[in-house]
Prior knowledge:
By secondary structure, the protein is α+β, with helices and mostly antiparallel strands. It has eleven helices and 14 strands. The strands form three sheets. It has a seven-stranded mixed beta sheet with strand order 3-4-5-9-8-7-6, sandwiched between helices. The protein has a five-stranded antiparallel beta sheet with strand order 13-12-11-10-14, with no helix packed on it.
Amino acid sequence: MPRGLDLIRLLADGDYHSGAAIAQRLGLSRTAVWKALRKATDHYGLALESAPGRGYRLPTPLELLDPALILGALSIAGGERLARLEIHDQLASTNDRLMADAALSAPAGTVCLAERQTAGRGRRGRTWVSPFGTNLYLSLLWRYPFGPAAVGGVSLAAGAAVAGVLARLGVADLGLKWPNDLLWRHRKLGGLLLEVAGEAQGPSHLVVGLGLNLRLDADQGRAIDQPWADLREALGDAAPGRNRLAAALIEGLLEMLERYGDLGLKPFLDEWAGFDLLRGQRVRLQQGERLIAGDYAGIDPDGALRLHTAEGLQRFHSGEVSVRLGD
C-alpha cells in the first residue's frame, strides 16, 4: 500500500496536518484526503484524530524504520556481516518471509524487519501481538555447514546476545527464562523463535526471530495472555529509538551467529547464566498432559535444561516443554 504508507510517514510526527497540505504534498484532491487517510489507518490498524481548522494527526508519534539510519548505526564489522536488509510495512511473519527467502538461496546475513505482522508467531504456535510502528519484529537468516541437530543452542545464544545488548543500553532487572523468553521484572519483554531446515549431516540454514516490546498501550496489551512489559516502562525517556535499537540488535545477533559457527554454544553459557531467572528455583515443566517438578540444575553444553526430580537428574530440550517457576 505505497500511497497509504506515504500518508502514515507524513503523519508520523504526531502533529496536525491540514487537508490542504496533505493534498498538495501527496498529489491528492481535497475530497480524496479523508478517504485515503481512513483507508491507510484502517489498513495498518492505527487510530486517526481530526480537529476542525487543524487537520489530522496520529494520536501517538511513530518512529518508522529507516534503512539509512539502521545501516548508518552499524559498525564496520556489523556492516560486513549484513548481507541484505529488508524492511516491509506489513508481513504475515518476518520468520516466514526469511524461511521463504532461504529456499530461494538468500545469503547468510539477510535481515528482515516489518512495521507490523498480521500473523506473528511465538514458540509453539502462540500468537505474537505485532501492532504497527511501535515494537520491533526482526528476523535474521544464517547458514551453517553442519546439520540441524547442532543448531538448537542458537536460541539460547540469541537470548544471551539480546539481553547483553539491552543491558549495555541501560536496561536493568533483565532476565532470561529457558528456552527463549526475555523478561523485565518477571514480565514478558520479548521472545525468540528459532526455525531450522537442512540435511541431517549438513548443510543447514536457520532463521532467528525476535519480537521485542518497545511501546504497547493498554488496548494492545489486552491481547497478550501473560504479564508484559515494554522498553518505555523499563527505560523511560532514555529508551533508544527504534532504528538505533534495531541496529544494535542486528549487530549483536549477527556477531553471535558468526561466533556460534566457530565455537558452538559453550562461550554463551556464562553470558546466559548472568541473566538466568531459573537459578536456585523449583521448576515445573509440562510435557503434554504430564507435569514434572524438580530443582533447577542448570543448562547442559548442548542447551538442554537439567532438573533434579524424584526420579533423578533429567534433561529436557527446547521445544518439548513449557517452563513455569514453582511455588
